[in-house]
Write a structure and sequence with these properties.
heterodimer, A: alpha/beta, four-stranded mixed sheet, globular, B: alpha+beta, 7 helices, elongated
Chain lengths: ~650, ~160
Amino acid sequence: MANKGLSSAEELEKLRKEILSKRDPSKPVVTVCTGTACQTYGSLEIYREFADEIRKQGLEGSVVEAKPTGCHGFCEQGPIVVIFPQEICYVKVKLEDVTEIVSRTLAQGGVIERLLYKEPITGERIAKDPDIPFYKNQMRIVFGNNRYINPRYIDDYIALGGYSALSKALFQMTPEQVLEEIKKSNLRGRGGGGFPTGIKWETTRNALGEPKYVIVNCDEGDPGAYMDRSVMEGNPHAVLEGLVIGAYAIGSQEGFIYVRQEYPIAYENTIQAIKQAEEYGFLGENILSSGFDFKVKVHRGAGAFVSGESTALMSAIEGKVGEPKMKYVHTAVSGIKGRPSCLNNVETWANVPLIINKGAGWFNSIGTERSKGTKIFSLVGKVNNTGLVEVPMGMTLRRLIYDIGGGIPNGKKFKAVQTGGPSGGVIPEQYLDTPIDFDELAKLGSMMGSGGTVVMDEDTCMVDTARYFISFCCEESCGKCIPCREGLRMLREILTDICEGKGQEGDIEAIEDIAKVMQDASLCALGTTAANPALTTLKYFRGEYQAHIKEKRCPAKACKALTSYYIDPEKCTACMICFKNCPTEAIHGGKGIIHWIEQAKCIKCNTCFEVCPPRFSAVRRLSGEPLPPTPAPGTKVIREKVR
Amino acid sequence: MVSKTKSPKLTKVSRAVSKAVGSYQRDKDMLIQILLDLQSMFGWLSREVLTEVSEQLEVPITQVYQIASYYKAFSLTPKGRHIIKVCLGTACQVRGSPRLLDTISAMLNMKPHETSEDMRFTLETVNCLGCCAMGPVVVVDGTYHSKPSTPALRKILETAK
């Protein structure tokens, strides 16, 4: 086949034309999101059903096509199906909808109203995905191509202009010019540090020692964040292309991609992408006959959060225990096996081909003064539109959470947003108009981090949130340095005590003292930032801490030891719903007999509170107040006649 | 008798290790990758597996053990027939997964990270599976369950024999 082993920029363009000439832009294509979230909803079966159904209805071949793609981002509404060229978007598609979609939409171009996205406030059905508010307010330059690409098929990436940036870098630019362009773009590391990428590249390029290494960090460990996975899964060639361009600029012939083992699809797609890129001549020896050689290996992480730290990650690549080392000398100068090693995050690498193709000036036109370009966030927690969103730097938190995220579900009140993962902090309502970039969130004591954005409502206890993150870091601390290991253990003890109603005077001050020592004396960024969730919750929600300590009350009614559940006998209609759902059989009563909770058996799982129909709202949560008496066993419901 | 029952098992382990080590060209840097392959093959890393890796890859047993005990992906004890994973990632946490964990824990009368005596269940927790829109999520033997109700959980656990 002529399309393998491309040996010049011209051959690549010729291939691109060939691929495009075979594609009819008016031919209906049904794309099914097969990102991890949609797959868990069964989207792979839906894709297969589409392929079968198209065959059954005799539409295969040139008439219509079904294509599995990476994550589209709108995970809340999954499985997502988009039909091109009209861009009709169907949400929450079920297996039994497939036949109808094929016969009505694919074959005749008709729209099935009931499968369209319904705007929750106006109730209006929106047909095309660019018109859905969730998508409309985004700027999807890195992430947007996911919806067009079958990640296991390199031709899809080439059809969209893929590898043209590599060919431009290799044939029209010197390594110095590539480096200069990245420096001028002011691209900063998307993994959380925000270090200028161009300067990092230059340091590795100028460092003494051969060979030099380039590394993709896809060890995304922040709980509640999955941006990198979706890029690696859905568009692996964009990352690979960026990596090869970086290697060319830096003068590296060997690279590594470090993927968490918890991300099996990302791992498989990366392996497949490398294989295809090698076949096509974008990787390996003498890339596109330019004389430049580059090979890449994939390593799976074995489950250690701290391995995302650069020195620890490099130890893991050497097959050793992933513990951080002191950075007397930066890894850019002395990394893997003591050689200069340039580590960048997935999203950072994926930005590189765009900058080379469109220029540093274009990139500088997006974003704020000191943070350029876009950023992908994973918007999760108590928000209506959970999913991945890409927005220009500088968008306010309010627009992100309300205009794109659709606000807080069930009419609850916004309380705080947690950004930056376990190293970040919480931001309360009064700062919702803060523009999101590397520097602004840091001023509030939090950070943008890699993009995890967890929205919390009035039911979330801030002390418990701090306890959660501290426990997380406590378990993930490698234990090498004392401030982190012991400091976290002590913080966890104090915070657990407070949550359990055993807090004492002086606890708040102790937290602040320990946090200070950890910030000053820990070895790596995990330790120096681990106390941030505790410090920011204290800064903005000190009253909640005091209520736990002094009044033994949890204002959010979330801390189990301080909360009791009670069924209001006046409101209980003995409907048996909570009775049946209670996992520990703590609820007594029966049909027509008012229910009551046996406190000794209650594990405070919140199930009864959640299942009690809102029109009754008989289950109450009490904190810091005495429990009212329970009705005498066997009390019958007196039903009022409905007038 | 003992040698009869043990010897085929030993060869099975050594053959598997030999294959895993060979697939990475006996590269010592690939120790973690080799152990990952063996972990997914056996479901846990026995003493025999670790010793065999140490001998075949010519890496001290202390180093093999250090890796196997440091990283979370490795288990040094056998696991139950059914693996229950409760996601405790931040998004699931905010949506009430600790309560879900308590519920399952109470139903099975087991603490998190334990394996039941009859080897039927292992109850694990994970930090984020990346399907936050479904949270709180429980994965039983690879099947994802979004916000399961108590009766639904009872059914899921009862069908897993």
